[in-house]
User: Which sequence fits this backbone?
């Protein structure tokens, strides 16, 4: 599955790489700050493209040099459960293998900078409990 051109631009501008379930533990264990981009389907979640454009600007504004991981759409559900991501787009922040927090959705610039700054100022800890999809007898997902 090919990336949207704006997500490809994110990857190029940040030296971002795809992060898949079989490599996520090694990727998150690397030293330093990191962010995982969960974009989802840009048709269903058009603000994901806004986040893809804004993410390099956030890095620059905050003077941060975090690694950028892009979660491919075909494995988003699997990795979303790992980090309890429930909304697209989302940015999951990590440092030195520990979880810092998640920032979901697109925000006004000042709010975005403040929220990301607050997350980055935190102490790395354990990931939130994994989410589990629950389905009814007819196969429909329950919320």
Assistant:
């Amino acid at each position: 599955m090919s990336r949207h051109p704006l997500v490809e631009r994110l990857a190029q501008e940040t030296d971002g790489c795809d992060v898949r379930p079989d490599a996520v533990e090694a990727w998150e264990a690397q030293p330093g700050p990191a962010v995982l981009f969960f974009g989802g389907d840009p048709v269903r979640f058009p603000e994901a493209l806004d986040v893809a454009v804004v993410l390099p600007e956030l890095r620059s504004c905050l003077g941060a040099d975090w690694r950028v991981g892009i979660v491919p759409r075909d494995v988003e559900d699997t990795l979303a459960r790992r980090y309890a991501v429930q909304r697209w787009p989302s940015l999951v922040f990590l440092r030195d293998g520990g979880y810092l927090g998640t920032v979901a959705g697109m925000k006004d610039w000042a709010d975005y900078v403040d929220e990301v700054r607050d997350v980055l100022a935190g102490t790395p800890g354990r990931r939130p409990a994994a989410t589990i999809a629950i389905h009814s007898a007819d196969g429909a997902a329950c919320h």
Q: What stands out?
A: The longest helix spans residues 47-61. The two ends are 28 Å apart (CA to CA). Helices lie at 5-14, 24-29, 47-61, 76-83, 109-120.
